[in-house]
Amino acid sequence: MTTIASPTEWLAVVASRQLRDHTTVFAGVGVPLLAAALAQATHAPNLTIVVEGGIVGPRIKPGRLPISTNEMRTAYRATMLTGITDTFLLAQRGALDVGFIGGAQIDPYGNVNTTVIGDYARPKVRLPGTGGANDIASLCRQVIIVTAHERRRFVPRVAFVTSPGWLDGAGGRERAGLRFGGVSGVVTTLGVFGFDPTTRRMRVDALHPGVTMDDVRANTGFEVLSADGIDTTAPPAADELELLRALDPERRFLG
């Protein structure tokens, strides 16, 4: 087995490390679910995964990674099978610690667009829409965005706020009536990003080995702040890659 990780494998492994044991994560299919399952198989065995289709506490079976939130492979060894509305009721009650989401566009305040590219009335591209992402971003105690790092994705202003981050900056969520939660981090193929606690603008917290700030600037359509000391992420370990590849042997999501 090669120990050289692809960009998507870097993304999944580093995202998995953001999750903690004895917490709950609302994860969509694809890289977020891969990352959650990897965390559950390594450092967070008591992590409770919640899937939008109404499934609580599954154990994702290696080689049987679901491609939809509604297929029954998602429910393997689950502790609860509820209705889809019940999963969002759990979020409303504050029972979900972390939400994992992606998106077509993200802006300096962590707002995410999965609705349209261009003018809403006459869009260049019509995207899938919110699904449950708005509820996840609005109701989970914290949100982590997982995405490839490309200039076309990291834009000064999203064309449509599908899922709220910090909206227009400090106090934006509170003014919109969102009483708790917020985007705590962004994990990309270049590094890990947080948000300044005063301005709520995105900042670089850690970069992958070999990645420079010039690389970040070249692939970001807005100015990114820097933490006082920028860390370097640890490369994916051999056992992490082995488990990750076993989860998705057909590389449907790992590419």
Element order, helices and strands?
A: HEHEEEHEEEEEHEHEEEHEH
Question: What is the name of the CATH architecture?
Answer: 3-Layer(aba) Sandwich
How much is the average pLDDT?
A: 93
Strand % is 15-25%
In CATH terms, the superfamily is: Glutaconate Coenzyme A-transferase
Counting copies of identical and different chains, the oligomeric state is single chain
What is the count of distinct domains?
Answer: 1
Q: What is the fold named in CATH at topology level? A: Glutaconate Coenzyme A-transferase
Alpha-carbon distance between the termini?
A: 16 Å
**Large-scale geometry:** globular
Radius of gyration: 17 Å
Tally of helical segments: 7
Strand tally: 14
Give the strand line-up of the largest sheet.
4-3-2-1-5-10-11-12-13-14
Helix content: 10-25%
User: What's the story with the biggest beta sheet?
Assistant: 10 strands, mixed
Q: Which CATH class?
A: Alpha Beta
Structural class: alpha/beta
Please mark out the parts with pLDDT under 50 across 5 or more consecutive residues, or reply none: none
What can be said about this structure in brief?
The chain is of the alpha/beta class. It has helices at residues 7-16, 31-41, 84-92, 133-139, 172-175, 213-218, 238-247; strands spanning 24-27, 48-51, 55-56, 80-81, 98-101, 105-106, 112-113, 116-118, 123-126, 142-146, 183-187, 191-195, 202-207, 225-232.
Could you list some keywords that capture this structure?
single chain; 255 residues; alpha/beta; Glutaconate Coenzyme A-transferase; ten-stranded mixed β-sheet; two-stranded antiparallel sheet; 7 helices; 14 strands; globular
